[in-house]
Structure formats: C-alpha cells, structure tokens
Design goal:
Hypothetical protein af1432; Rossmann fold; seven-stranded parallel beta sheet; seven-stranded mixed beta sheet; 34 helices; 11% strand; globular
C-alpha cells in the first residue's frame, strides 16, 4: 500500500479511528486507571503506571504494517496481518535495553509486559506458547522489514518520540533476544525467581491493557465516579422501617453504630494500612446494610486523605437470590447519582445502565464493571481472578483500590479456603483492595491462608468490625438445635413420622433436606396429608417459579397462615422468611446454622424455637462427604439440645477441627503450581461450582414471555450467521442479553434423570435451522415434562441438589 498517509486502528462504515489517537487514548486510560495503592516488591505504583502506559502506547504498533492496513481497509487477508506479537517484541526490547541495576527484576518485568501485549487479543498463558527462536523469526521477519521500510512515516506520528536507531533496535530479531524470550518461562519456575506476586502483577497489567483497549475501541468514555455518603444508609433505614417495630431493631441499630464507631476511632494511618476487615454477627442482625455503610465510610475517609481515585464498592455474594433480594435496598441507597451495576448470570443489563446507550456498549460496560457500586456473585469474582480467559480477566483491574464486601464467606468450599484466603491477602497487599468478610459463622479464612506459608510481609492483621460480637450471639435465644439423630440413619417414612409428632398443624414449618429426590418424595407424602398447605422449593423448578413460591410463603407468614415448606439447600441463605420451627437433615454446621436463621428470624416468637436435626439414610454423606458428616455428628453427639447462645462456640470448634486436618490438595496445587509457577493450566482447574459432564440445561417454555424469548433467540441466531463484521457484535450483544433473560426459565438436570423423560433438543424448535446444546420443553407439552408445583418430572433414583 504505497503512499499510505493515514494509519488506522479501526476502519468501518460507522467507526474510523486513527492509530496514533487509539494508542494515545489507551495509554492515557492505562495511566488514569492505575491505583496509587498498587505495590509489588521492587515496583511501586508510579513504576507500575509507567509500565502500563508503555504497554498502552505500543500494544498496536504492529498495525502500522501494510499487511494490517490492507486487511483493515480492503479486507485482504494475510498471515502477516497479525499485529500483537511484533508489538510485544518492541516492548520487550525497549524494556530490556534500560540496563536496570536489578537484572532479575528487569528480565521478569520485560517478559511479563511482552506477554500482556502479545496476548491482548487472546487468552493469557505463560508456558503453553511453544516458542522457538527459529519459528519466532520466521513469523515476525516480514512484519519487521515492513515496519522498518515505513519507519520514516511511522516516526512522524508515533505516540512516543524515538530515534530511527532506537526504532530499529527495538524491532531486533537477534537470536539472543529471541532465545531469552523463549527461556524465561523456564527460569520463572526456578527457586530464585518464582514468587506469587508475578501472577498478580501479570493479570493486573493484562487486565488494564485489554480493558482500556476494548473501552476505547468501543468509544466508551470513562465516567466520573461518585460515592455513596455513609449517611444514606441510616436515612434509608428510617424510611424503610417507618411504622414497624421489631424486637431485633434495637440490636441491629446498635450493631451498625458499633461498626462505624470502630472505623471512626481508627487513625488516618490505620485507615491507610489496614485492608482486611471481618464482620461477624448472627443472622438477621443487619450485616448487609452495616457492611455497605462501613464501605461507604471507608471510601469517604480515603477520599479525605487525598486519594486520587475514588474506590468502587464491590459486593460479592454466593447466591443469586441474595443479590435479587438486596438489589432494591442498594438501588434506593444509590439513587440517581451513584451508578449501580448488578453483574450475574440472571441479570439483564438494560435495567442497570443508560437506556440511550447501544446494547453492545452497555454489555461491555457491564462486563468491565464500569460503575460506582457493583453487585456480583462469587462465581463472577473468583472465576475471573482464577482464569486465563481474556473476557474474564478484563474486569480484574477494577479490584485495585476498591472496597470488596464478601457476604456469607462461609459458603466457600472448605477445600478452597486456604487458596482464597491467600488471594485476599495478596490482593490487599498488591492492589490496595480492602475487604469486608462477612458471615454469621466466620470460618477463620486468614488462618486457613496460613497453611500455604505464603511469604508476604506487606500487610497488617485483619480488624473485626463488631469486636464484641460474641455478646450478640450469647444474648440471642431465638432458636435451638434439637438432635433427633439415632444410632442408625432413619428412613424417609420414619422421618415423616418424626415430623408429624412435632408438627401441630398450627405453625409455619420448614423442612430442608439434601437431595431433590428426597425433597420431592417428602413433599408428595405431606401433600396427601396436608393438601394445599405444603409448598415446594428447589432447583428442580425454574427460577421465575421459585420467586413465586417465596412470595407466597411470605404472604402466608404475613397473615399467619399455617403451612409447610419443603426445600433443599436453596432456602439456606438470603431467603428472608421467618418460620416457627424447622427440620434439617444432617449437613455441615454452617448449613445447619443457616437453616436456623430462617426460624424466629426477627426474635418475635419467643425463645428457643426448635430446629430438629435428623439423619435420613446416607444423604448427608452422598452430598457433603463422609468427613463432613462425621465431623458434625461428633459435635451433635456431645449434647442433644444446643441453644443459639452456644452456636458461636460450636462454629469455632468446627473450623478448628477442619484446620487440624491440614492443607487441602486442591488449594495447594492451584497455589504452588498455578499462581507461584504461573501455570494457567492449573489455574483453570479452579471450580467454585463443580461442573459435571452429567448435567444438561433445559429451557422450559413456561409462559408467553418464555415463548417470546425463544422466538427472539432463534431469530438472533439466524441473523448472526449472515451479519457483517460490524453488525455481528450488535447482534451478538442482543443475543447475550436475550440469553440472560432466558435463564429465568432454565433448569440444570442430571443426564441420568433426563434419559427417563427426555424432551427435544432446542434446535428442533427452529426445525433444524439452528443447533443448540440444551433441551427444550415445548409450550404445548409442559405438563408432559414439568409439574407446575414440583418442577421437572422423572422416576429416577436419588440425585443431588
């Protein structure tokens, strides 16, 4: 393309952006996005910022080749159009030439910057690039020659002035240079160089670069950030509770005030250096809004200390139903001036962000966490941190300098407690992230982290925001565990008899069991004896129907109508219901306490309402494992009746016993191999929710809205096949949003269940015009496959929640 005067970064009928402008804007975005709290051994925030700016300035240098410009303007394909690798080589050579007095540090930093630039359109990896000097030379030499031929024109508009000689040197394909790049991954595993900090350095740098690149390419301007005033929370509570009086209200108010008092007594220096906080309090004590006010207060204090970047508040929650329950509170508190975003698989983006913005841009903002306050799930947070996927890592830079509330921290699997505890410490130390770890059953996650013997000396100990929390536990008498466990496990029919012996027919009763099969059997047997007074709740019914069940249960409770709710673990956390008694099949202690949290929740029904513990066959061992079962049985064997005032001591003993068992292999392997040795194959082994190849998804065409969504999904899939390059992303964004809305009608079913009553593949709905990997229950055949009260129909053996 001789005579080319303008170099383009993006070129289509609607968007044309000159390459120098794109490079300048991305580098500027990287500079402004770096938190002043970022710190690594040997690299402070200012030095990290310079590296991020440099990567931003040169990440698309390879787009100056005629090969890329020909592809961009004329659609001419060529194996030499790839631009990222030659750009990465330029960055590597530039950094390597600085002659740093710390050669090991310079080698590592140069290589990690090289990786961030080279892979900015790919998934991140270190050891799987299969690099050989000869192959690299062959891949890059045509691009190098072309850039050198065009050097005079390129240097005229280059974002960073450099001489012709420097330009040539930084494009060097010398054997020593290429061999060094190929050898460094091996060196990073050596005892002398390996360090967990390089994982956090790499994913942060990579995240900054790809996030700013995508935001600028989509022409999304970074919004001015606003804070929640901590005063908004008590103002909102006055408005919300007007005309109500519950016995727990005074304790909730006292607890919230004590949390703020702890923070207000901290000196400015203590606010700066302490980054991990715990908030331990019984269920129903108001932790959700107390933690939000604490985060808002911390943000205000940090602003007063001259913080240039206002912290985001990120609330991570294990269960979607808790997000949906808390979302209205957050919306009221944030108001119109604070941007709130909810990012989870059931959430549609239109309700959270500017309606006038094109959907594809809205989705990009959502996935990039471009908001002041973010509500998300543990899956979104942790599967993004422990991933090599470009799309997942894009949001990770938003953690730097932010305040992260982790609700129901005990919901994390025991096997990952050491790993996640160590990650929290590293994020606090390196990114300046502040954490509020919140639960009624504090699992001592920092003590679990100690098991990994992570060598980190950049952090102060955690602070408990409710230091006299034991008083809140010991002063409560809302419930008591009553063990009905015998020398042998009981049958289903025996369980029914035990329930009937305790249930008078005048109470609101909750039954929680461990498997869907068990819950269905018990529901059906109780329905025969108490018709129209039994409700059913589990993941066997679609999400939109689960909401209806919870709404009906709340109505029954409001008007004091006796009923029975049969459920699986779906009820355990975040479902704000208040029963008179509960039966719980044997489960880990935190699960038992969560069930107790649904009984006498507001302390308005007297003292020590019963939570009966039973053991139905081997369901507990099947779901949670033999070790978990034996551990909780040993605790309950010591005392048949345990009041709520003793729960705290039980929890301490429970987690002490888990700690004594030693470091779980799952945490050890991902930390030592994945994080310390930068091996993303091990990182990708992290599964917060275990994926089973035996699970299939089923779309239930349950109502008119489901039909409309299914029609739209098929139409968009057809459009996607024929969309041009520009239209493809618009259609894909609409498809993604439609799929999010469809999640309200999806079930996840085990293969062995679905074989017995197999619905058609969803693709059949389009008469084969599209393919799909999920099943479909047609509107006219819902009754054949799905019961409106109990969900998916089958006649199989036991299957899990």
């Amino acid at each position: 393309m001789e005579g080319l005067e303008v170099y383009w970064a993006h070129y289509n009928k609607n968007v044309r952006q000159r390459l120098p402008e794109h490079l300048q804007l991305v580098s500027k975005g990287c500079k402004s996005a770096v938190s002043e709290y970022i710190a690594f051994r040997g690299i402070n925030a200012e030095q990290f910022q310079k590296l991020a700016v440099l990567c931003g300035k040169y990440h698309d240098l390879g787009k100056y080749t005629d090969f890329f410009q020909d592809y961009m303007i004329r659609g001419k394909n060529s194996p030499d159009k790839d631009h990222a690798h030659i750009s990465a080589l330029f960055v590597y050579n530039m950094l390597s030439s600085t002659g740093d007095s710390r050669p090991d540090l310079n080698i590592i930093i140069s290589f990690l910057c090289y990786l961030a630039v080279r892979l900015h359109h790919s998934n991140l990896q270190v050891h799987g690039l299969n690099m050989k000097p000869r192959d690299m030379n062959k891949t890059l030499q045509n691009k190098q020659k072309n850039l050198l031929q065009n050097a005079e024109k390129i240097l005229k508009e280059f974002p960073e002035q450099c001489s012709r000689k420097e330009f040539e040197d930084f494009l060097s394909l010398g054997n020593t240079v290429l061999q060094n790049i190929c050898d460094i991954p091996h060196y990073l595993k050596s005892a002398r160089l390996k360090n967990a900090q390089w994982f956090f350095f790499l994913i942060l740098l990579f995240s900054l670069l790809i996030d700013q690149d995508k935001l600028d390419s989509a022409q999304i301007a970074i919004k001015f950030r606003n804070q929640i005033s901590p005063d908004r929370i008590p103002e909102y509570l006055v408005k919300k509770n007007k005309g109500k009086h519950l016995e727990l209200d005074e304790r909730r108010e006292n607890a919230r005030k004590e949390v703020i008092e702890v923070l207000s007594k901290m000196t400015d220096q203590e606010i700066l250096v302490h980054r991990i906080y715990t908030l331990t309090a019984p269920t129903g004590i108001g932790k959700t809004l107390a933690s939000l006010q604490a985060a808002a207060y911390l943000s205000q204090r940090l602003k007063g200390l001259g913080l240039k970047k206002l912290p985001k508040i990120i609330t991570a929650i294990p269960f979607v139903n808790i997000i949906e329950q808390n979302l209205d509170d957050y919306r009221e508190i944030c108001g119109e001036d604070v941007c709130l975003l909810a990012h989870y698989h059931l959430g549609q983006v239109e309700e959270h962000i500017d309606q006038n913005c094109p959907l594809e841009k809205v989705l990009l903002e959502t996935e990039s966490w471009e908001a002041d306050v973010i509500m998300t799930t543990y899956v979104q947070l942790l599967q993004s941190l422990l991933s090599n996927r470009n799309r997942n890592l894009k949001k990770i830079n938003k953690l730097a300098g932010s305040i992260v509330i982790m609700d129901e921290i005990q919901a994390l699997p025991d096997k990952y407690m050491p790993l996640i505890g160590a990650i929290i410490r590293r994020l606090a130390a390196h990114y300046g992230t502040r954490f509020i770890l919140m639960t009624a059953t504090q699992p001592k996650i920092m003590q679990f982290a100690d098991q990994l013997k992570d060598d980190i000396d950049m952090l102060q100990p955690s602070i408990e925001l409710l230091p006299n929390n034991e008083a809140y536990f010991t002063n409560l008498r809302r419930t008591q565990f009553i063990s009905l466990i015998e020398d042998r496990a009981i049958s289903e029919d025996e369980f029914i008899k035990k329930f009937q012996a305790k249930y008078t027919g005048k109470e609101a009763a909750l039954i929680v069991v461990n498997t869907i099969k068990r819950s269905l059997n018990i529901y059906k047997k109780l329905w025969e004896q108490y018709p129209r007074r039994v409700l059913y709740l589990s993941t066997n019914i679609i999400p939109i129907a689960r909401k209806k069940v919870i709404k009906r249960a709340k109505q029954y409770l409001k008007f004091k109508i006796p009923f029975i709710l049969v459920s699986t673990q779906t009820i355990e956390a975040g479902v704000d219901l208040d029963f008179d008694l509960a039966f719980r099949d044997l489960a880990p202690l935190p699960s038992l306490i969560q069930t107790a949290g649904r009984v006498n929740r507001n302390n308005s029904k007297g003292c020590h309402l019963p939570v009966y513990i039973t053991e139905i066959e081997n369901d507990c061992g099947l779901v949670y494992g033999t070790d978990q079962k034996n551990r909780v049985k040993a605790i309950l064997a010591n005392k048949k009746v345990i009041g709520e005032e003793e729960y705290r001591a039980l929890v301490d003993d429970y987690y002490f016993k888990i700690l004594k068992q030693g470091l779980p292999d799952e945490s050890k392997q991902i930390w030592e191999k994945g994080i310390v040795e930068l091996d993303f194959e091990y990182i990708n082994k992290f599964e917060l929710i275990k994926k089973s190849h035996e699970i299939v998804d089923v779309f239930v065409e349950y109502d008119d809205i489901a039909t409309e969504l299914a029609d739209l999904y098929i139409d968009l899939r057809k459009q996607l096949r024929h969309a041009d390059k520009e239209g493809y992303f618009v259609v894909k964004a609409r498809l993604q949003n439609t799929m999010a809305a469809m999640q309200q009608y999806f079930l996840s079913i085990r293969v062995k269940r679905i074989i017995r009553n197999k619905p058609p593949i969803f693709g059949d709905r389009s008469y084969g015009e599209i393919t799909s990997d999920f099943y479909w229950i047609p509107r006219g055949q819902v009754n054949d496959y799905y019961d409106l009260l109990t969900g998916f129909k089958d006649e199989g053996a036991a299957y899990l929640y």
